[in-house]
Design goal:
The chain is mainly α. It is built from seven helices and no strands. Helix 2 crosses helix 3, helix 2 packs across helix 6 and helix 6 runs antiparallel to helix 7.
Length: 133
């Protein structure tokens, strides 16, 4: 079993593309029925949204540089500036990401890595808030 202290990237340690694809697919399976997040996502480009989030997360955790190759630098605050992201939206995004993470077994994503991911999700969600409560 790999640990967070090994030289292997988190991306590789938790199963690479297959795991990140499953994580993002689980998130987007919840979005269409969500009263807060669904209006923010283009119904005709859910596959594109899926790819962009997967590329971002995979790249952040040591995987392929697909996000940068396809979209340039992440610049998350700028990319989300035109969306109304208040605390409720950030918390809902976090809830759906954590729901998806919970669907992936601990053999694939052991607790130490799970904690790293949830900590990152919390920081990203908070950083993207651009509207007052």
């Amino acid at each position: 079993m790999t640990t967070p202290n090994s030289a292997e990237s988190v991306y590789d340690a938790i199963g690479g593309d297959a795991t990140f694809d499953k994580l993002v697919a689980g998130f987007y399976a919840q979005v269409p029925d969500d009263d807060i997040l669904a209006p923010m996502y283009p119904k005709d480009d859910m596959e594109g949204a899926h790819n962009r989030l997967k590329w971002f997360l995979a790249q952040y955790w040591g995987g392929p540089q697909e996000f940068s190759e396809n979209r340039g630098r992440p610049a998350l605050r700028m990319r989300h500036a035109h969306f109304h992201v208040d605390r409720a939206a950030a918390l809902r995004w976090l809830e759906l990401m954590n729901n998806s993470l919970a669907q992936i077994d601990e053999e694939t994503i052991p607790p130490a890595y799970r904690h790293m991911l949830t900590d990152h999700f919390e920081r990203v969600a908070g950083m993207l808030v651009n509207q007052p409560d």
